[in-house]
Design a protein that fits this description.
- The protein has about 300 residues and is an alpha/beta fold.
- It has a single domain, classed as NADP-dependent oxidoreductase domain (TIM Barrel, Alpha-Beta Barrel).
- Helices cover about 40% and strands about 15% of the residues.
- The strands form two sheets. The chain has an eight-stranded parallel beta sheet with strand order 3-4-5-6-7-8-9-10.
- This is Aldo/keto reductase.
- InterPro entries: AKR2_Oxidoreductase (IPR053135), NAD(P)_OxRdtase_dom_sf (IPR036812), NADP_OxRdtase_dom (IPR023210), TAT_signal (IPR006311).
- It holds the Pfam family Aldo_ket_red.
Length: about 300
């Protein structure tokens, strides 16, 4: 997900207007004794995950130069210091898996993150080969979460993954997609209890998942990862030049990113949301959405009504 430029525009616009409500989260989040990020249980095991993770599409598809990798290394270091854990990747994301593997080993934090990647091909052996390649690139002997990307040949790959889970090669298995049109199929699979995780698109202005998919995941004990939380930057463009509503502080919201993310996290069916970034300030701003007060249903309704006036 590519939203950095549009967010930067918003930040600059708010700064020109005074920007009193956009606070830099760096000083508090980096402190070891700072507030703890909210965590939610994976229903299949009871293991807890921080509610804000990190996506890697585009941002981690870089070369080997220091200029390209040093900023990403800093993102990973600060993420771990701030209590973040989930890193989501895919073979579809170019060199992202390799870059994540290289950098986490280099900073000696390879065992401190929750690694989630995907299989994105057709055919049993092709899937096995691709997943083994992901293990190699990410430096893993066991993958925390392996997902079938965009439901591609999902029945074939889930059979392999169920075997691998029994063997202890993967801890959890899941399915993913990024479009509303796939939600009904995702829901059918969720209801069959064939997976531990489901990943899909959801945002304050793209709420198709609220119709039944989120409820189905919660009712059937399936953890939820949310992608596209900023609508590829469209949400930041929608609020460009606008200040946060005065009641945002009631939910410890300090930026537009936190406004959008806290709406998502406020739905208790959501286990983790994975905004992508290669910028430390944006990363810590995002993680700040998991701190402090989280809006209840009344608060989320208020946020939605406000956004619908933009």
């Amino acid at each position: 997900m590519k939203q950095l430029f549009s967010r930067r525009e918003v930040v600059q616009g708010l700064a020109a207007a005074g920007g009193a409500l956009l606070l830099n989260p760096l000083p508090t989040l980096a402190e070891n004794n700072g507030p703890m990020i909210l965590q939610r249980k994976i229903p299949a095991s009871g293991e807890q995950l921080p509610v804000v993770g990190l996506g890697s599409w585009q941002q981690f598809d870089v070369g080997a130069s220091s200029a390209e990798r040093v900023p990403l290394k800093e993102v990973l270091i600060k993420m771990q210091e701030a209590g973040g854990k989930v890193i989501d990747a895919s073979p579809m994301y170019g060199r992202a898996e390799e870059v994540i593997g290289d950098l986490t080993k280099e900073i000696k934090l390879n065992d401190q993150f929750f690694f989630a990647t995907k299989v994105w091909t057709t055919g049993k052996q092709e899937g096995i080969d691709q997943m083994n390649d992901s293990f190699r690139k990410m430096g893993r002997s066991k993958m925390d979460l392996m997902q079938v990307h965009n439901l591609q040949d999902w029945q074939t790959h889930l059979k392999t993954l169920k075997d691998w889970k029994q063997q202890g090669k993967v801890k959890y298995i899941g399915i993913t997609h990024y479009t509303d049109s796939a939600h009904s199929r995702l829901e059918q699979i969720v209801k069959s209890k064939a997976v531990d995780f489901v990943q899909f698109n959801y945002s304050i202005l793209s709420r198709n998942a609220e119709k039944s998919l989120l409820h189905a995941a919660r009712e059937n004990g399936v953890a939820v990862i949310i992608n596209e939380p900023f609508e590829q930057g469209a949400l930041f463009r929608a609020v460009k030049g606008k200040t946060l509503p005065p009641w945002a502080g009631d939910y410890d919201i300090k930026s537009w990113a936190q406004f959008f993310l806290k709406y998502i996290i406020g739905n208790e069916a959501v286990t983790c949301v994975i905004p992508g970034t290669s910028d430390v300030k944006h990363l810590l701003d995002n993680i700040g959405a998991g701190l402090g007060r989280i809006p209840d249903e009344q608060g989320r309704k208020k946020m939605l009504e406000w956004m619908e006036t933009v």
